[in-house]
């Protein structure tokens, strides 16, 4: 039985450590998840704080009060790949122009701000950007000028009351695979969108004023409007006649999720919850094992 005791000791130590980690993770204030990632929601920051590890790769700062980025504050974090400034006080992408300091930036999330002017040019130096998420800003105008984004795969502009998606902008996104334009006020898409988005896999367009009949069959087949199309045999006939190389055919159409697009949601909360749940499960299991061994030992 001495053997079992030596077995139990490390277990109880581990469970104490796990509980400490668990409780420090659940704390609602600033959390450093690891040396590569900080998550600090709701800290009332008005600028990027200076006290994080310089090697940090993920800066997740939603629900703060940052309205502007200052190069002096960004300079020490040259390795940032993911910046999340959801639900801050940003009113224009112009006030983010210091972001050019983040040469390695791959993912940017600026949803739930009040960005009225969205200028792709501001991100001209961030040539590694793969994903931009800027959902639910109240009234957004997309400025036509643009620079080439060779790596951008995913662009989410849901819920911005956007009235026009300029073809100048579309031309800058040769690698785009996912485009979320739901809940806007678009009535048309650029006519050549099919040619200039050769890699497109999904275009989410529901809750706009776009009429399915006017949509290019190829784009329709990639979009979440295909259900509407399916329910209208007229449209289906049009599409067959109008075929430009890609047949609008039910068996060629992917199933789209009805509703949330996981990529477009603020995932800091999900990461946070996942980590907490994982720790909780581990901790509970360890406690159960310890109690079990203890009573068996008696
Ligand atoms: C956010 O910052 C601005 C100044 O940039 C300030 O006027 C405002 O009161 C702040 N809001 C909150 C909720 O802290
Ligand atoms: C459609 O978009 C408007 C404006 O963004 C939004 O208020 C509304 O809730 C959306 N409707 C649905 C069914 O998503
Ligand atoms: C739809 O596509 C499938 C294969 O992808 C094919 O077998 C079928 O004949 C097509 N139907 C029409 C109506 O073109
Ligand atoms: C899709 O969502 C709409 C509105 O959110 C709803 O009316 C419809 O029933 C949903 N369809 C399916 C198949 O879930």
Automatic annotation (TrEMBL):
InterPro entries: Leu-rich_rpt, Leu-rich_rpt_typical-subtyp, LRR_dom_sf, SLRP. The keyword Nucleotide-binding does not apply. The chain crosses the membrane at residues 270-295. Residues 1-28 form the signal peptide. Gene3D superfamilies: Ribonuclease Inhibitor. The keyword Magnesium does not apply. Keywords: Leucine-rich repeat, Membrane, Repeat, Signal, Transmembrane, Transmembrane helix. SUPFAM superfamilies: L domain-like. This is Uncharacterized protein. It comes from Ignelater luminosus (Cucubano).
């Amino acid at each position: 039985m001495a053997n079992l005791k030596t077995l139990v000791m490390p277990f109880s130590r581990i469970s104490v450590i796990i509980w400490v980690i668990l409780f420090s993770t659940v704390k609602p204030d600033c959390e450093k998840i690891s040396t590569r990632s900080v998550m600090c929601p709701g800290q009332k920051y008005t600028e990027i704080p200076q006290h994080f590890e310089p090697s940090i790769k993920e800066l997740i700062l939603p629900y703060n009060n940052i309205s502007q980025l200052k190069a002096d504050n960004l300079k020490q974090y040259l390795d940032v790949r993911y910046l999340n400034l959801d639900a801050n006080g940003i009113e224009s992408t112009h006030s983010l122009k210091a972001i050019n300091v983040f040469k390695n930036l791959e993912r940017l999330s600026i949803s739930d701000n009040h960005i009225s002017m969205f200028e792709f040019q501001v991100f001209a130096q961030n040539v590694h950007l793969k994903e931009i998420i800027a959902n639910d800003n109240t009234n957004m105008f997309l400025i036509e000028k643009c620079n080439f984004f060779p790596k951008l795969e995913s662009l989410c502009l849901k819920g911005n009351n956007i009235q026009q998606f300029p073809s100048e902008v579309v031309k800058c996104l040769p690698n785009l695979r996912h485009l979320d334009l739901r809940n806007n006020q678009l009535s048309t898409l650029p006519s050549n969108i099919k040619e200039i988005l050769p890699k497109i896999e999904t275009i989410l367009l529901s809750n706009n004023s776009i009429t399915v009949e006017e949509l290019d069959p190829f784009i329709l087949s990639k979009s979440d409007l295909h259900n509407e199309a399916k329910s209208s045999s007229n449209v289906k006939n049009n599409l067959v006649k109008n075929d430009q190389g890609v047949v609008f055919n039910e068996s060629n159409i992917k199933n789209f999720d009805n509703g949330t697009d996981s990529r477009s949601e603020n995932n800091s909360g999900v990461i946070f919850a996942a980590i907490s749940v994982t720790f909780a499960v581990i901790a509970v299991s360890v406690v159960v094992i310890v109690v079990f061994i203890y009573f068996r030992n008696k």
